[in-house]
Write the structure tokens for this entry.
Amino acid sequence: MESWSLFADWHTHTQYSDGKGTIIDNALAGRERQLRQVAITDHAPASIGVGFKEPATTISQMRTEIEAWNANEQTPQLLLGAETNLVSRQGDLDLPPQLLKQLDLVIASLHPLVRPLEWQDGATMLLPNVIQRYTRLRSRQLRNTNTKALVEAVYRNPVSFVAHPGLWLDIDTEELAEACVCRNTALEINCQHTDILADYVAAAMPTGVDFVISSDAHLPEQVGQLEAGWSLAKKLGLPPERIRNAEQRGETSE
């Protein structure tokens, strides 16, 4: 992998959700890291306490800022995305289809602290996940529910990649990865949690699924800090051709 490098960070947060910097701050940080692409992917509305409000208005405002930067052909190119939440057992996300279509990329995440679509989803998936997150309790039924929800989300929505699969919440990694292969969706190697997620990456690799290495930056200075994920990929022997934001040095990405 010595002749390969990472050209993009596709998972960063700003003040539009729980990040500390602005879109321009993240762009400038990406420039310092010599990235050619940075995606702004703030938390969607169902994230309790941190999700952006009035999604249609917010996405429009973010798009305006991003287009103003890109209009000057500055490096890095900015992409507009969102870290969406699963809000039902059927794989519903917390942005409607018409807004998902306006994004350059869509991240799907299974988080415990989200507002459910229906009370039944809260009772049978999201509340049990909160309990699982903060205890050692594990349930095969909840594992199956979580996995089915993620698989349905991948099949029903234009998901670019699934964020930090397996972080704190139990899933069948192989089943999710196989669904992602069928849908041309990637799994994330999240640089904030490589110690926790190494086993999940290793379990997914035999399926042939692609990966994305992301910083999950919440501070501008974290943008482009991808070394931990790159090191994990090398350690596990992941072919660089299966890392979507990796390229051979000297190549130019579209």
